[in-house]
Specification:
This protein is an alpha+beta fold. The protein has helices spanning 12-19, 60-65, 105-111, 160-168, and strands at residues 3-11, 25-28, 36-42, 71-72, 75-91, 116-133, 142-150, 155-156. Strands 1, 2, 3, 4, 5, 6, 7 and 8 form an eight-stranded mixed β-sheet that branches.
Length: 170
């Protein structure tokens, strides 16, 4: 049985956008050698009064209703698994021409620390059985769960055809 315990920590609204097919990429200051991971929801951005300004206007209602992950006590619900299909290196100045994300151009520019951005093209899957994860203190980007999570019978968020069409545009 295929399992994993590796997680990427990301804003919950972004995870839900990935999980609902509204977003297919992550834009980072770095590459990764971790090619697959569970998407572990975080909320630090939602604690700021102006956090909605980081998202495109057309997605602000979506973000507001998906800012916080489902919780049970201290545990958060992990619903998605992702594979990094490709990483495209782009000059930061060319990032605004890329679609497939819910953030504003200003947010992306402010987030980037160098002249180069790394666009992670993700294939996202629904977990057959969502997993209630305990907090992972100290981990900023990646975390390892105490238990393995089953990847059996996972279903892609986007069909093979839709995903292939999206790749053509990147």
């Amino acid at each position: 049985m295929r399992t994993t315990h590796k997680c990427l920590k990301e804003w919950n609204a972004t995870i839900e956008a990935l999980g609902q097919g509204k977003q297919t990429i992550l834009i980072r200051n770095y590459k990764t050698n971790v090619s697959e991971f569970l998407l572990y929801p975080t909320v630090s951005y939602a604690l700021k009064d102006d956090y909605l300004d980081s998202f495109q206007e057309e997605y602000q209602e979506f973000v507001q209703s998906n800012s916080l992950p489902e919780k049970k006590g201290d545990k958060v619900l992990i619903k998605y698994f992702a594979t990094v299909e490709k990483i495209v290196e782009k000059p930061v100045s060319r990032i605004p021409s890329i679609k497939h994300y819910i953030w504003t151009r200003d947010h992306v520019k402010n987030y980037m620390t160098g002249k180069t951005a790394f666009v992670w093209i993700l294939r996202v899957y629904h977990l057959n059985e969502p997993y209630w994860a305990e907090p992972t203190p100290g981990a900023i980007r990646y975390a390892n769960l105490k238990e393995e999570v089953s990847l059996e019978a996972i279903e892609p968020v986007l069909s093979e055809f839709l995903f292939s069409e999206l790749l053509k545009g990147l």
